[in-house]
Lyase
Amino acid sequence: MKLSLLVSICLSCLLLLPPTLAASTPVAKIQEWQVPWPDSRPRDPYVAGPDRIWFVGQKGDYVASFKPSDEDFKRYDLAPGTGPHNLIVDKRGVWYAGNQAAHIGLLEPDTGNIDKFTLPGEGRRDVHTLHFDSKGNIWFTVQWGNQVGYFDANSKTFRTYEVATDSARPYGIIVHQDQPWIAYFASNKLATIKNDQLVELPLPRKQTLPRRLAVTPDNNIWYVDYGAGYLGRVNPDSGAVKEWRTPAAQNSRPYAMASDSKGWLWLVETGVQPNRLVGFNSQTETFSEPVPIPSGGGAIRHMVYDADSHSLWFGTDANTLGQARLNN
């Protein structure tokens, strides 16, 4: 089926549903640890093993690790003004997005050595969110530069794709079956790369502001609408879209998002204080009872799911690192 037809289907099949709450919460426990560097905005954790969580301090210009077993934090300083936004980890080291310094960095934890790979071009080059493909190469968004990028981690070369929609602000990104999917935070569109071309998929409501993405085992792509408080599902084959209003509705401001191994979606409502963690069962199409974040959260911007512990990890604007253990 042609993508133009997919878009037409997408525009005609929107279904808006009010939230239905489940009888009980599938969150067993939320635990938070105070990060020892004040007002540093710890964010975007990455689980690199049973006892090693990595994260960045966006306002503190650092990469850090945390060992839950002994509650030990270790900090690696970056150059002032780096503004790290996100990180991902593999056997080569810790890859971070130098959001304010136009580069992707690679930290070698044993030595502390950092290699920097500068994004080519002129203008805004604010590397935003990174995601590996199956070969260990990196897809990423460039929010204010209005680009999607690809970094070949072996040849150390970049390829960038210009976004056709002006000021779209490509934001959240996931890679599923080596195909990247991108959310435009300032436009009612998702995008993907197909046959080496960037293809945009409009969402039915013009007011939609998709921010983060996730994928479930049935291969559906999910997004949160930060602007109006919806959770949305896109069938990547047919283009069909279905949406559900999140529990706090227009006050929701859903931001961080992740999916687990059981087909549940997880989002954080940041428009209410304290922030609330909400689950959504994609089979029964019901939301769980919202669970307040103990620290309040301020804003939880990104979450990751760890299958080994069946838990979610997140950082908060309250300067904490958190883990939500699940019992769904």
Remarks:
- Confidence is low (pLDDT under 50) at residues 1-15.
